[in-house]
Amino acid sequence: MNEYSYTYHGTENYCYPGTDVLRNKQGITDETILPNAEREITSLLLIADIDTFNG
Q1: Is this prediction's pTM over 0.85?
Q2: What is the pLDDT of residues 14-47, one digit of tens each?
Q3: Would you say 13 and 26 are in contact if contact means Cβ atoms under 8 Å apart?
């Protein structure tokens, strides 16, 4: 699954070495796991924000 490629000049510092995966706070280097993790984290944050808003 290499739908996107970040191997442009100057992007080497933004990706994990030897991958096209952008550096992230979770330290996930597997490009097949990262999209699902991002969706799950975003969903949890949205739920937490809605719960806070609703009181």
Answers
A1: no
A2: 889 888 888 999 999 999 999 999 999 999 988 8
A3: no
Question: One-letter amino acid identity for 29?
Answer: T
> Do the beta carbons of residue 23 and residue 14 sit within 8 Å?
yes
Q: CB under 8 Å to 39, separation ≥6 — which residues?
A: none
- d(C-alpha 36, C-alpha 55), whole Å: 29
DSSP state for residue 13 in the 8-state scheme: G
Q: How far is CA 30 from CA 2, 41, 52, in A?
A: 11, 16, 33
What local confidence, expressed as pLDDT, does residue 11 receive? 67
